[in-house]
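batch job 7 of whatever, protein = DsbA-like protein
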Amino acid sequence: MSQNSSRREAMRAQQQAQEAAARRRKIVGIVAGILVVAIIAAVVIWAVNRDKGSEEATGPQAKPPSANVKTGAYTVYPKKAKKNAPVVTVFEDPQCPGCKNLETSNLGHAIQTLASSGDIELRWQILTFLDDNLRNDSSSRAARAIAAADMVGKLAPYHNTVYANQPEEGTGYTDEQLRDDFAAQAGIKGEDLATFQKYYDNNTTKDFAEKAADTGLQTGTNLTKKFSSPFVTVNGQPWEDWQMMGDANQAQLLDAIKKAAK
């Protein structure tokens, strides 16, 4: 074999080795790319399932003791109302600024005082329609937390804490607020706190809160085509005069409610 032939053979062998190495690198790159895509897909699926799991019930469902099964409305002070006391129902969404204004005003406090004394029967119909408007799930989570608070006998204190600490519109409540901060402010502690947090974590009141919100919204829209929150009824009929009662004392407020009840 000539020297030139040997040189050509050596060059051909080197070229073949380089091509083989290139093919190996290409294969390794493809495999690595597939693995990266698979890992990313797995992470995305995990994240979706994690978020989905936070919204789905993970334990047995329960109905809050102060709530009516059919309407989903809470009776704020069960068995307190005197015979023939007018029934005042407040339809409200936890993210509704007007609802906060009502609940934290002198009028809101007066209504609750009349309920605690038995002069009226006060009911709360918790809605969640603002979740769609604001593109979050804050009202739904707050509604479930309010229901969980009722499960441990702290409906009114927790409800009032939620409205007193309502965030700026669109911001929404955090899980830490609903699960920890508001519970502490409402006086939920010890075993009751552990129970409340278990209900919140497991979404034990999810089915109830959703059905109550849907029923309440349907009831309100059946009563008026221009339904919005806050919305107040007396004995099941719309009562708009509450908006003019901001300066009324309790006696005047009770007289107005009794007049509307006739």
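notes: The radius of gyration is 31 Å.
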